[in-house]
Specification:
This protein has 371 residues and is of the alpha+beta class. The protein folds into two domains: 160 residues, Thermophilic metalloprotease (M29) (Thermophilic metalloprotease-like); 201 residues, no CATH class. Strand 1, helix 2 and strand 2 form a beta-alpha-beta unit.
Length: 371
């Protein structure tokens, strides 16, 4: 039996996110999916729209072996081949499942650095992100349900409810926030363990409503590269390159992370020492998808949590560019609702959000569903 929710999701990816047109080449890249059903439906829809589907089906277990035994020469060759393919694409749909979310935890950091530098960066940072219409998403698996502390059936219902949101209404609700961020200069963020200021003056503001991520629901920009000063303590866990990080805290001076600690402080600093740009910020985004309420160790969901924001060490996006370049782009989330300790966001001294709720009248649409 075909699941109509899966068909709806495929339509969003093809028609809303990538807007596939006649003659366009679309790379569908899938990792560890429990079923090929979504990929098959995407192939059908891309073809029906007159596009040309290309499918790459990957295994994280095999990738782990490649990373563990990789050399600079091998990583470079893989990167060159995939970069050449990506350069011929008009659109990209990336779908990631995971039988084991910690599959890469025992890959040495120097090997992951080789992958990031010679393979991931030239394919995705240099080609896919700036030069294609792209969207990425997770696929519901028992591992994701477990991380969310839900049954598989309940998580699947949650997944399709969140991922097939009304993205047109989401865009309308975000518009006044975009206007306010475009007019803002100094941002101040206050939460337990956090008192941080930075400037977003003249950096482009980008609303996100299903065009690049599914699920979606954020408005992002980037701090001016040397403007961040103060301290931040994140209150959600993050899994990066297979390692689970908790209680991450950064101290900034003139934009640079000068002190960093966590449960895995040594590994944290290894990530931040990957290159010069890894200790500077590349993104700041306000999460406003109120259907996502609690972290589940999956960035694509956690960074959209209603009442949250994420502040990202590393690479800046070219459409909201502060000039920072890095092989790292690590979205780290702080939830400011009262059930997570509360907090405030100020634009040029004006209180914009308190304990996860937007204060100005024109932003009340972003509070819908946030109890």
């Amino acid at each position: 039996m075909r699941d109509p929710r899966l068909h709806r999701l495929a339509e969003i990816l093809v028609d809303h996110s990538c807007e596939v047109a006649d003659g366009e080449k679309v790379l569908i890249e899938a990792f560890d999916l429990p079923s090929p059903a979504l990929v098959c439906r995407l192939v059908e829809l891309v073809s029906m729209r007159g596009g040309i589907p290309l499918v790459s089906y990957k295994s994280n277990a095999i990738l782990r072996s490649i990373y563990q035994h990789g050399t600079a020469e091998g990583m470079t060759l893989n990167g060159e081949l995939e970069q050449s393919r990506m350069e011929r694409m008009d659109a990209y749909i990336g779908i990631r499942g995971a039988d084991n979310s910690s599959q890469f935890s025992d890959v040495p950091q120097d090997k992951m650095d080789l992958y990031q530098k010679h393979w991931w960066y030239p394919v995705h940072s240099e080609v896919r992100v700036p030069k294609t219409k792209w969207v990425v998403l997770r696929y519901p698996t028992p591992a994701m349900a477990q991380a969310a502390e839900m049954s598989c059936e309940a998580f699947e219902d949650f997944y399709f409810d969140v991922c097939t949101a009304d993205y047109a209404q989401m865009a309308k609700n975000q518009a006044p926030l975009v206007d306010r961020m475009e007019a803002a200069d100094i941002i101040r963020i206050v939460s337990p363990g956090t008192d941080l200021t930075f400037s977003i003056r003249d950096i482009p503001i980008r609303p996100c409503y299903g065009q690049r991520n599914i699920p979606d629901g954020e408005v992002f920009t980037a701090p001016i590269r040397e403007s961040a000063n103060g301290t931040i303590r994140y209150n959600t866990q993050s899994r990066y390159q297979g390692t689970l990080f908790d209680n991450i805290s950064f101290t900034f001076k003139d934009g640079k992370i000068v002190s960093a600690s966590a449960n895995e402080t040594e590994k944290l600093n290894e990530v931040l020492d990957a290159d010069t740009g890894a200790r500077f910020l590349g993104e700041w985004a306000i999460g406003c998808n109120n259907r996502v309420r609690h972290p589940m160790l999956d960035t694509l969901f956690d960074e959209k949590i209603g009442g949250s924001f994420h502040l990202t060490p590393g690479q800046a996006y070219e459409d909201a560019d502060n000039g920072n370049r890095s092989v790292v782009h690590w979205d780290l989330v702080l939830i400011q609702r009262s059930d997570y300790g509360g907090g405030e966001i100020y634009f040029d001294g004006q209180l914009i959000r308190k304990d996860g709720h937007f204060i100005p009248e024109d932003l009340q649409g972003l509070n819908a569903g946030l109890e």
